[in-house]
Amino acid sequence: MDTPPSRTLLWVKILIVAGMFLAGALLYPRLPDMITTHWGVSGQPDGWMPKAYGTWLLPGLTLLMTILFPIFSRLDPKQENYPLFARTWEIIQIAMIAMMAYIFAVQLYASIHPEASALVGRFILLGVGALFVVIGNYMGKIRQNFFVGLRTPWSLSDPEVWSRSQRFGGWMFVLGGLAFMVEAAIWKYEIPVFIAVIIAVAVVPVVYSYVLYRQRKP
Question: Could you give the C-alpha distances from 56 to 70, 94, 108, 112, in angstroms and in order?
Fold first, then answer.
């Protein structure tokens, strides 16, 4: 059984979300009337929103995520498995919430310093890579559920297939995350690297799960 979550992890989530709202409030006077909400592949802004709404979009979504995570786990048909990976589940939540805070920080910085827009793609890829590495390191501890992990019909129908699929998927996430972080540093092959990593983390583990299931139950 995984280590039970501590109150410290709960407070970490609360502080991250509160810090996002606080940062938005403190920097609000410095933000332009229209803040950038999306950047294209080239790094140029291609989506805007009035700051009265855009400033609070990501903090609001992050707060909603924080509230919904425990609700979804209670609605999960396999909710009895969550205590078996409770601390792992908390760490994954924190990683995703921290990623939202990181994106928000990049958004605020690029909105105040438009000349930094060309670096947004690298910043985001670096953050996504770090998120992949963290999640990949913990995937092997995730037990069967319908909400988090590599959920395929074959892994959900066989605990052994589930366990081995999570470990394999975890390695793919770690390697993909490291590739993202390296590419963020060199920024030379971003499109091919992005496609290769998405295939590695989204397609290859699913195929592995199916093949493993067929080997166990021909």
Answer: 23, 20, 11, 16
- Please report, as a single letter, which amino acid is at residue 138: Y
Domain ranges in the chain?
7-216
β-pairing, 45-50 vs 34-39, is antiparallel
CA torsion, ordered 134, 135, 137, 140, to nearest 10 deg: 170
How far apart are the C-alpha atoms of 36 and 53, rounded to whole Å? 11
Q: What are phi and psi of 32, to 5 degrees?
A: -70, 165
Q: What is the pLDDT of residues 153-165, one digit of tens each?
A: 999 999 999 999 9
70/178 Cα distance (integer angstroms) = 29
Bridge partners of residue 157, in order along the sequence = none
List the beta bridge partners of residue 49: 35
Joined tokens for residue 177: 């995350």
